[in-house]
Amino acid sequence: MKKDKNLDELFRDKLLNYEQEPPAYILENVLASVAGARRKRKIVFWRIAGVAAALFLAFIAGWQINTWNSQEVNPGIIIGRQTAPEISADVKPEITPAEKENPSGYMKSKIVNKPGMVNLQLAELAKENQINPISEKSTKSIAGNSKSEHFTSVDESLMVAKNEESTVLKPMKSLFILINQGTQKVANSLQEQKTKAHKDDWANKTIDQQIMEQNRQVIMAGNQTKGKGRWLVGAQVSPEYNVSRSSHSQVYASNMLNASANPVDLGGGISVEYKKGKRWSLQSGVYYSGMGQSSGNTNTSSGKDYLFASADRGSGYFNTNVSIDANTSKMSMNSTAGVIEFKGIPSGIVLGANLEEKALASNAAILLDARFIQNFEYIEIPLYLRYTILDSRFDVEMLGGFSSNVLVGNQTYMESSTGKSLVGSTKDMEPLNYSGTLGVGLKYGLSKRIFLNVEPRVKYFLNSLNSNSSVTYKPYTIGVFTGLSYEF
Amino acid sequence: MEDFKPIISDCIGGSPKAQSMLYHQFAPKMFGVCLRYAKDATEAEDNMQDGFIKVFTNLKTFRHDGSLEGWIRRIMINVSLEKIRKQHLLYPVEDVSVYDSVNFSDDVLAKIAADDLMKLIQQLPPRYRMVFNLYVIEGLSHQEIAKEMLITQGTSKSNLARARDILKKKVQENFSELIGQNNYTA
After folding, report:
1. Nearest residue on chain B to A35, alpha-carbon basis
2. Which of A263, A481, B55, B160 lies at 20 to 30 Å from A316 by C-alpha?
3. Measured between CA atoms, how close is A16 to chain B, in angstroms?
4. Which positions in chain A touch B31 (Cβ < 8 Å)?
5. A60-64, A118-122, A432-436: which has the minimum mean pLDDT?
6. ipTM
7. How far apart, in whole angstroms, are the C-alpha atoms of residue A31 and residue B77?
8. Which of B53, B106, B164 lies closest to A34 in CB terms?
9. What is the pLDDT of residues A203-248, one digit of tens each?
10. Which long-range CB contacts under 8 A does B115-120 form with residues at least 24 apart?
């Protein structure tokens, strides 16, 4: 034991502070490597900044296109297409002497300014002139007038849009060119510096070191060739929170359900990713996306008619008007996403008809304490570009791109104290829609080939989901996609 | 203790001059450390290079509450351990024949030069070399070594005993002349 201690002490004494001068090339290699790492960090920073800027510009460009599209909707045409409610025989609006003298001029101005009153005024005019107030001929001629006005205004709006495009897009384009030129210059100068440094290093190296360096480069080149074009397949699910974003014509909005809550839906699907190089990849796949909104009563009207109609029901009533088609007896009601078309008159509701309030311009009011839930289901085919910001045990990626969304489900449910039942669907929903997506992906390697993905994404629709010209419905969807992917 | 704060600050700022100064300050001692943990000078040079790259890239994480030399030394040891772990050299236990216990007088051992002792350590199997270095030179306990190397304390003790036996045997083989002289003079 003592001998062991002596041996230990001997080694410790002689080797604890043992010093030997290392070869000079180590310092050179260390300094070159540290400087290279710093340069790489700088390049990575600029790359990330460039990608972020490009994605941001794409997002803004999408937004702009989106906004211009929505600007093209002319209020005149919105008015012209309004479904006119049936006119009650008891309704007798007052007509001023001036109106009697020049009925056509008065009507035209009213059509443009107060579209909700079109059929009402038309009925009065017809009465005066002894003609059928709802004849097709009259409606067509009015539609023709408003249409011609509309075309003129559309042409003008297109001109304005073109001018806007030139004034807004031109600076963006020149900004792109400047960024590209700047990036190219930086890249060129870095390349020159690198080549020069490489040449100097090479001259200072011994033959052995040069051979070793060549071998290393050959191996690296081999590895790069092996790493070309990898595929990833995966499956992901996400809770999706929908944020309603809509605008409506004034007439439509005056009798519309109020979207009061956005339920959280479930989305998910299968993704296929093609990884080109170390950073960039292209992703597609097939996703299911559930989307919906819950609508309730508006709290605006306290008209005497509703108070009267709901006298025996307390405050639990809807003041949202409904219209009933005379031929099909189908009931419809305006919502933020579009017109809800009922399959029939749902059980348990009470309709108040022919109310005294003239301003309502409606023939019925629904009296019920209930909520309407509109569900839309989409199959989404995305095309995303992904960029790996941080390539580590936790990969951090940015993703952006566009998707085609095919409508596969459209249901409206009514939820009341008696339960939830399917009552109809939303009219005029577009069968094919386009959306833009921006997100951040976190990827954790569970093994060499299997990865856990967590991706918060924001999706916005580029076009209105409803083709009704009175409705512009472009909701946002926020989701956190979680799933697994397999690399091969 | 020398104040390295300004030079560290310059190194973090990317000054090659400051980095060279810091390197020259510690390089000979750290090369000594790397030599002890490596099987030869080439491996030690590699470890030293990787170690100093780590030192400079992680210098901003150095808290000035301990010695800089100790911090750099720890990095060198970790790099050496990591290298051996990666090469899977720690896990297979070499079949080392049982050495007869050899005893020498202190005088004999004292006459052996440090360079020669270094060569003896480098000839040890990797795991024995690690345990011997960590226990004898760095002063770690078997518990700490076990934690560091992911082995049991018993294995650590056994490896240390084997390392000592091998070293004694090597001394006998390589320095028989010294032993003979010693016996003669005794």
Report:
1. B14
2. A263
3. 6
4. 19-22
5. A118-122
6. 0.82
7. 21
8. B53
9. 666 667 777 777 777 666 655 545 556 888 999 999 888 887 788 8
10. B116/B174, B116/B175, B117/A10, B117/A11, B117/A14, B117/A15, B118/A15, B118/A18, B118/B35, B118/B36, B120/B167, B120/B170, B120/B171, B120/B174
Of the candidates B32, B45, B114, the beta carbon closest to that of A23 is on B45
- Exposure pattern of B174-183 as b/e (b: 16+ CB <10 Å)? ebeebbeebe
CATH class of A39-71+229-296+373-487: mainly beta
Tell me which of 2.40.50.320, 1.10.1200.10, 1.10.1740.10, 3.40.50.620 is the CATH number of domain B5-86: 1.10.1740.10
Q: For residue B19, list chain A residues with Cβ-Cβ distance below 8 A.
A: 30-31, 34
Topology agreement, domain B5-86 and domain B106-185 = no
Tens digit of pLDDT for each residue in A18-72? 888 999 899 999 999 888 888 887 777 777 777 777 777 777 776 666 666 555 4
Q: Is B35 in the A-facing interface, judged by CB distances under 8 Å? A: yes
Q: CB-based contact (8 Å) between B110 and chain A?
A: yes
Q: What are phi and psi of A13, to 5 degrees?
A: -60, -40
Give the number of other Cβ atoms within 10 Å of residue A266's Cβ: 12
Measured between CA atoms, the residue of chain B closest to residue A14 is B114
User: Which residues of chain A have a Cβ shorter than 8 Å from any chain B Cβ?
Assistant: 3-4, 6-8, 10-12, 14-23, 26-27, 29-31, 33-35, 37-38
Question: What is the distance in angstroms between the Cα of B151 and the nearest Cα belonging to chain A?
Answer: 22
